[in-house]
UniProtKB/TrEMBL annotation:
One of its GO terms (cellular component) is ATP-binding cassette (ABC) transporter complex. This is Peptide ABC transporter substrate-binding protein. It comes from the Bacteria. GO terms for molecular function: peptide transmembrane transporter activity. GO terms for biological process: peptide transport. Pfam families: SBP_bac_5. InterPro entries: Peptide/Ni-bd, SBP_5, SBP_5_dom. Keywords: Signal. It comes from Streptomyces paromomycinus. Residues 98-493 form the Solute-binding protein family domain. Residues 1-21 form the signal peptide.
Length: 582
């Protein structure tokens, strides 16, 4: 889902008490829960209404527009004010992967061999201004988010890729003013929406869980500026929007619990403070002045050290997997990485144990050897580029052999990282040190998270022009299947001019074909075998250097209710029904 967010740097620390627990256990209704309690149940379960729930984050989101965002935490948060056709039911760990109807009254009805999907939206739904929500608003939301990429480029392009297009090419609602719009989305009445696809798509119910299916009334759309005045279809609406500073949500008076079995609308007000130093967020979490770190980054280095050495403090932590991978994307469009031998040399040369230490030690994730994370169905353990150590030192014999075969000699390149993610910068520093030993002089160039994909690493023309051969990346599944994880980072169809997540611009016909075949079959077991094969073929291309199967370490505020760490949102707490103790 998405561009997951990293954590703070610290020397390797381990704690048996903080290893990821299994996802069984009872919910806790008291403030004295144990470590990892939110990975096993809902902590401080409560239906108590009232109070102000406070979030904070160290940066600002790229956008709050549900059709123009791709960070996991915004997808999670946006469900408070934007209801997609389907969503994930709050639950611990893998139980949070349960897909349920949201704006739709039931899951989709497929026909024509999974090429046509029909949904009925619930009756009686209204926006925050009291006007009715219709199926036409869902159609418009998909059109604007997927077919106007020159205006809204930050989200995924699944619908653009898989929906039938109009003859001659549909240019999106800002350029095509015809009342019919995209012909492959039909709205025969105000409650029914029908999607017609180019090819079978067995996991379409998952696809419509993206916030891009949250309804948008055409009359209120302002293009890129829609983020400043979003029409709410959820239980909360925007009261205050101060760009880059603060957002305040209040109850949506036209939300009706009878039309929404998922949301509880507990707090009176929800406040999000932006661009707050991570150390300050951690202090405020412990003091009870902030209830949730919005970005789900995990605590910083100093706080982590304090938590792991205090039995009392450890009881308020959750260490969770979340279908995440930390990796280096190699750019084959930039010499000398256009040669597979050069890319293989990087695979063998990067000291993954050193990177793991830079990211915070084993508590932040195990060393990775595959593209698929270990907690996704379809994962198969293998190691295409096994690393050997002589004591503490990485054996570079194979790395030097591949580099010699590549014939590049001593070269200079640039590695990109996000400036406000110190752990990512430190991991990049570790990579730089490793590569120097085989003749690669890499310079780190940092860019802000909010613009990393829209202006820099996610713009192929920019990376090529600026000799960016390597890019630091962390990825979480769009939805909890191999396709939901792999498609946007290895499918050639997913490459975009801006907002690109396939940073290596991998466009391998065999991989593209396997993805198409996998998503077309209704056989779940066969799909998972295909995803494992895609993983292996991607590693053969050597364009992704897996670093760690990333885990987060969150501080759980005893003053917040209904906290549960969910795999569906990268191990973050599920934001749908968090409340506060009075």
């Amino acid at each position: 889902m998405r561009r997951s967010v990293p954590v703070a740097t610290i020397a390797a620390l381990t704690s048996a008490g903080l290893l990821l627990s299994g996802c069984s256990g009872k919910s806790s209704s008291s403030g004295s829960a144990e470590a990892n309690a939110a990975t096993k149940g809902i902590v401080n379960a409560s239906d108590e209404k009232g109070g102000t729930l406070t979030y904070a984050m160290s940066d600002a989101p790229e956008s709050y527009d549900p059709g123009n965002t791709y960070y996991a935490y915004v997808w999670n948060f946006s469900r408070l004010y934007a209801r997609p056709l389907t969503t994930f039911k709050p639950g611990p760990g893998p139980k949070g992967n349960e897909l349920v109807p949201d704006l739709a009254e039931s899951m989709g009805k497929s026909s024509d061999g999974n090429k046509t999907w029909t949904y009925k939206i619930r009756k009686g739904l209204k926006y925050d201004d009291g006007k009715p929500i219709t199926s036409k608003d869902v159609k418009y939301a998909v059109e604007r988010s997927n077919f106007a990429r020159d205006v809204l480029s930050l989200g995924p392009n699944y619908f653009q890729t898989y929906l039938k297009d109009n003859e001659g090419g549909y240019k999106g609602p800002y350029k095509d003013s015809s009342p019919e719009g995209l012909k492959s989305i039909e709205t025969p009445d105000d409650q029914t929406i029908v999607f017609r696809l180019k090819q079978p798509f067995a996991e379409f119910d998952y696809l419509v869980s993206a916030p891009q299916t949250a309804p948008v009334p055409k009359a209120r759309d302002k293009g890129a500026d829609y983020t400043k005045n979003i029409a709410s279809s959820g239980s909360y609406k925007f009261d205050t929007y101060e760009e880059g500073k603060k957002v305040v949500l209040v109850r949506n008076p036209h939300w009706d619990a009878k039309t929404d079995p998922l949301r509880k609308q507990l707090p009176d007000k929800i406040v999000l403070n932006m661009k707050v130093a991570q150390s300050t967020i951690d202090k405020d979490l412990k003091a009870g002045n902030t209830h949730i770190d919005m970005a789900g980054r995990g605590v910083d280095a100093q706080t982590q050290a304090q938590l792991l050495t205090s039995t009392k403090e450890k009881a308020n932590t959750d260490n969770a997997l979340g279908q995440r991978l930390s990796y280096v994307a190699i750019n084959p469009k930039v010499a000398p990485f256009d040669k597979v031998e050069c890319r293989r040399a990087v695979q063998y040369a990067v000291d993954k144990k050193a990177v793991q230490t830079a990211q915070g030690g084993p508590i932040r994730g195990d060393v990775a050897t595959t593209v698929l994370p270990t907690d996704l169905a379809g994962y198969q353990k293998f190691d295409q580029y096994p690393q050997k150590y002589n004591g503490e030192n990485l054996d570079l014999t194979e790395a030097k052999k591949q580099w010699e075969a590549c014939g590049a000699g001593n070269v200079s390149t640039t590695i990109s990282a996000r400036s406000d993610r110190q752990d990512e910068v430190d991991a990049a520093t570790s990579v730089v040190g490793s590569l120097k030993k085989i003749g690669i002089d890499a310079k780190i160039q940092t860019y802000p998270s909010g613009k990393y994909f829209s202006d820099y690493a996610g713009v192929p023309a920019f990376t090529k022009k600026n000799n960016i051969g390597l890019m630091m990346m962390q990825w979480g599944s769009d939805y909890p299947t191999g396709f939901g994880y792999l498609n946007q980072i290895v499918n050639g169809k997913a490459i975009q001019k801006s907002g690109n997540s396939n940073l290596s611009e991998l466009d391998d016909p065999a991989i593209n074909k396997l993805l198409d075949e996998a998503i077309a079959t209704s056989d779940k077991g066969q799909r998972e075998k295909d995803y494992a094969e895609i993983d292996k073929k991607t590693m053969e291309q050597a364009v992704i250097v897996p670093l760690t199967y990333f885990k987060i370490l969150l501080y759980r505020s005893p003053k917040a209710t209904n906290l549960v760490s969910t795999s569906a949102y990268s191990g973050e707490y599920d934001y749908l029904n968090v409340g506060v103790k009075k």
